């Protein structure tokens, strides 16, 4: 039982939510104590100041009566003060003649009063036969008599005790509420965190479709849940992509490897002529070169998706890069009887890798030349649309049916198997776009196809 209790307390103390709440609550409690202390000392100070001022005014007033009526007049005034039943329980008076005998008053003579002066002192005296703690002052009169005036500090003591008790009660209640609040906050925090932990454990166990349930309240945990679910969506997409890529790579490599193996098996080194051997070797070299190109493309896409090439980013003129690519493809366009033009309204600079941007534009132009047909009209344009810069390659070919847009960018997916290629061109373009923070878009031009890259305001500058 003791061991279980110790483990429970240890678990509570190890909770970040509990310690965080407890620390802030203790800070709030300390602040409250400081404020209560200030209130306490201010209140007692004001009360003490009022008592001292009241005693000083009373002593001054009695001194004036002495000046007017002498000692007998002062005696009558003290007796009237005691007889009016106003503050008689708290007012203190004592008039001593030059010999030290009491002439009037409600406190008894005592040795402690002999050393009393006009500066005022807290002193315990006998008030109507009972001990009372009061603030008293003594004034020497011209005839050698002494006038002692004071005020009972019982009210101040009661106020002080009341504030002390209220403060202690407030501290006790606050401490209990602090502890209870820390436990409740820990419980609520643990409940929210436990949901995320269970989902993470399921995902770690292989259930990649699991997601953290969304809360209705748009608080910090809801935002965290949204980000985690987006991350899990991305992980699932990448894992499915890896799985699909593995299947596609296996399929794409199996066919050329099978052809190469069949070719090798048909070669009869003993009886084959030199020309046959050279033709077979040339065919095998072509197959190997194709495999090398596919491997290189896949490696490039992998590097782009990992973000490893971002370190080579620099300010790059997008309009100049597009013009250079168009100039490079002009000979091929003439050979295919296609018209290839570039249009840019103004110089545009983007933060990126010039070689990768040129590669993306080249892939887009190459696809347009392949699929637009003849005679083809291909336009590379760069324009501003609000805060974005849009690079578009448009052609007048047959375009792509909307139901196939979702598959564009899949590795090795080809709309027309009869057209030479590996099905990795637009996949590379999309990877380059993601690396540069740009959006890849497809739209039918009626006729033709429009392939666009949209650079945001953080990436594009005029």
UniProtKB/TrEMBL annotation:
Catalyzed reactions: ATP + protein L-histidine = ADP + protein N-phospho-L-histidine
Chief location: membrane
Keyword hit for rRNA-binding: no
GO molecular-function terms, A-Z: phosphorelay sensor kinase activity
CDD domains in alphabetical order: HAMP, HisKA
Entry-linked InterPro entries: HAMP_dom, HATPase_C_sf, HATPase_dom, His_kinase_dom, HisK_dim/P_dom, HisK_dim/P_sf, Sig_transdc_His_kin-like_C, TCS_sensor_his_kinase
Residue stretches spanning the membrane: 21-41, 166-185
Span of domain Histidine kinase: 248-459
Protein name in the entry: histidine kinase
Native organism: Parapusillimonas granuli
């Amino acid at each position: 039982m003791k061991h279980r209790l110790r483990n429970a307390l240890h678990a509570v103390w190890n909770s970040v939510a509990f310690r965080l709440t407890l620390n802030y609550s203790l800070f709030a409690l300390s602040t409250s104590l400081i404020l209560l202390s200030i209130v306490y000392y201010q209140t007692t100070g004001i009360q003490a100041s009022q008592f001292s001022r009241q005693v000083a005014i009373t002593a001054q007033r009695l001194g004036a009566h002495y000046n007017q009526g002498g000692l007998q007049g002062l005696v009558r005034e003290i007796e009237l003060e005691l007889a009016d039943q106003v503050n008689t329980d708290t007012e203190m008076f004592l008039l001593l003649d030059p010999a030290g005998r009491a002439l009037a008053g409600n406190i008894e003579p005592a040795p402690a009063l002999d050393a009393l002066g006009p500066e005022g002192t807290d002193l315990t005296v006998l008030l109507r036969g009972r001990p009372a703690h009061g603030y008293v002052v003594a004034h020497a009169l011209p005839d050698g008599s002494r006038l002692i005036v004071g005020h009972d500090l019982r009210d101040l003591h009661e106020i002080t005790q009341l504030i002390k008790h209220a403060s202690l009660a407030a501290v006790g209640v606050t401490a209990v509420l602090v502890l209870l609040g820390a436990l409740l906050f820990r419980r609520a925090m643990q409940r929210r965190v436990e949901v995320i932990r269970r989902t993470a454990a399921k995902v770690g166990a292989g259930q990649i479709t699991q997601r953290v349930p969304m809360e209705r309240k748009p608080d910090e945990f809801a935002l965290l849940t949204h980000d985690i679910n987006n991350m899990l969506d991305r992980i699932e997409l990448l894992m499915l992509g890896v799985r699909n890529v593995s299947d596609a790579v296996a399929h794409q490599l199996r066919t050329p490897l099978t052809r190469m193996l069949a070719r090798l098996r048909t070669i009869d080194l003993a009886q084959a002529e030199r020309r046959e051997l050279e033709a077979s070797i040339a065919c095998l070299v072509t197959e190997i070169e194709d495999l090398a190109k596919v491997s290189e493309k896949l490696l490039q896409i992998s590097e782009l998706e990992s973000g490893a090439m971002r370190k080579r980013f620099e300010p790059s003129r997008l309009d100049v890069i597009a013009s250079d690519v168009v100039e490079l493809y002009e000979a091929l366009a003439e050979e295919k009887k296609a018209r290839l033009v570039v249009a840019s309204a103004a110089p545009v600079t983007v933060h990126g890798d010039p070689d990768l941007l040129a590669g993306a534009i080249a892939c887009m132009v190459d696809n347009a030349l392949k699929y637009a047909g003849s005679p083809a009209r291909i336009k590379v344009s760069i324009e501003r649309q609000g805060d974005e810069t849009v690079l578009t390659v448009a052609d007048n070919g047959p375009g792509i049916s909307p139901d196939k847009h979702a598959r564009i960018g899949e590795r090795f997916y080809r709309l027309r198997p009869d057209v030479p290629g590996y099905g990795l061109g637009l996949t590379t373009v999309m990877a380059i776009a993601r690396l540069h923070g740009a959006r890849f878009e497809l739209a039918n031009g009626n006729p033709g196809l429009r392939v666009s890259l949209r650079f945001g305001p953080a990436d594009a500058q005029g």
